[in-house]
Amino acid sequence: MSKLKSTMGRMERPSTLLQEFCEWMHRHRGVRASTLDDRSRVVRAFLEATGGSVARLGAASIRAFVLNAARGRSPASAKNVVAALRAFLRFLIAGGLVPAELIDAVPTVAAWRLAALPRYLTASEVERVLGAVDRSTPAGLRDRAVLFLLWRLGLRAGEVAALCFDDFDWTGGTVRVGLSGKGRRETRLPLPQDAGDAVLAYLERGRPVHADPHIFLRARRPLSRQAVATVVVRTALRRAGLRMPSEGAHLLRHSLATHLLRQGQPLQAIAAVLRHRSIEMTAHYAKVDVTRLALIAQPWPEVTSC
């Protein structure tokens, strides 16, 4: 905190504030690097929008930024903006730069839990996506392996990007995930044959020789979480001629959950595959199974005349 106060005593520079904020979040909140990247983008935009001087911050400027930044975003994305801004204001309050009551100026985002339908691909559409990948190039072999892990195991983008050689047990046919992902819980999952074959094909014919322990590389550097979503998944969807409202890596995770549900798998089994902490998160996918919902739907009660 002494370092923070010394920084505050100097001229307010947006880059300095942002750096101090990231260090504070990492040290005092234990925030992961991927979350810090997301928070930093919002805070950087906030500092630019307010001229970089936090000493003149007021409720009006805070509300104006949130309303403008949330325009056109999904409720979940708008909530991330609010969360980042609140974290930054707590950092400023801890340093004594702004009054504590200023955090109450951050508006809340109206969103109902599990209200939206999950976006997903059908099994045939997933096959189109996998079939559209060019397996004659190293990048194509890499992308195909990534897509198989997203689809067959329901991995998150960050979990795929973090995979290293030591995570794969080829003898036992398993892969270790979770230490660097959401929840930071290590889990060993069975590796399906087709997914394992795709990874081996990339390692044997596509991956450049490099000492980096990460499995998936891009320009001889580890493939980032953002690249998994924006480069691999989005490119594969467009090669297959599919345009989806959501084109991130979670699209394939949602697709796996929906596919398992329609095969008759119980929610508890799907929750185990997706590694959900709460069955309520898995119940989100039950809304897409219209056939089963029709069996339990009750007739609309007749309206009696007054």
- N/C terminus separation: 69 Å
The tally of beta strands, per DSSP, is 5
Structural class: mainly alpha
Count of separate structural domains: 2
Main beta sheet, described?
Answer: 3 strands, antiparallel
Labels describing this entry:
single chain; 306 residues; mainly alpha; DNA polymerase, domain 1; hpI Integrase, Chain A; 2 domains; three-stranded antiparallel sheet; two-stranded antiparallel ribbon; 54% helix; 5% strand; globular; disordered N terminus
Question: How would you characterize the overall build of this protein?
Answer:
The protein is mainly α and 306 residues long. It has two domains: 2-105, DNA polymerase, domain 1 (Orthogonal Bundle), CATH 1.10.150; 123-288, Intergrase catalytic core (hpI Integrase, Chain A, Orthogonal Bundle), CATH 1.10.443.10. The chain has 14 helices and five strands. The strands form two sheets. A three-stranded antiparallel beta sheet has the order 1-2-3. Strands 4-5 form a two-stranded antiparallel ribbon. A hairpin with a 4-residue loop joins strand 1 (168-169) and strand 2. Residues 1-11 and 292-297 have low confidence and may be disordered.
Quick structural summary:
The chain is mainly alpha-helical and 306 residues long. It is 54% helix and 5% strand.
